[in-house]
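User: Here's a chain of 176 residues. Predict its fold as tokens.
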Amino acid sequence: MGEAAMLCPQKVNKRMFLMLQSLIFHQQGQEEDDSLPTVPSTQTQCSQPTTITFTPTIRLKALSVVTLGKMCLQHEEQAKRIIPALSRLLSATTHPAIKNNILFTLTDMCVRYATLVDPLMDRVTACLRDPHPQVHRTALTLLISLLQEDYLKLKGSFFYRILQVCRNRKLLLISC
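Assistant: Prediction complete.
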């Protein structure tokens, strides 16, 4: 669906965005983590609200993040609403698959909408300290890629965090 949305952006409608958001931000009663963000409120005004009657799996949520990100690459108004929610979800979730896919999505959006993602880069760099090795490896790889392509600049504590991760994890940065 995400690939099709990139090829035919005029065929994407608001219901598709709402469906994916309801999958990603679904909360099941009290059993779910209350700190997870909800669907952005400006998205829920619709004559027929999208509701799901099942509990989406972690894999479905992770795949929905990628699909939603690809759809947002063609729709700036939707991206403006989704990027902050994904950033909050990145901080709130503990699932490495969801975190990795949010990192890839935010990286793609940083290339397209740098001014929207730049203020949220602190949350992305916080993933450099994630307890899951695959998450901090993905974050480091994507951040270095954005630096090499001049989508990010070394400023503030960003450079310090990268150096600290390299020293603590004893990683060799061949690309630097």
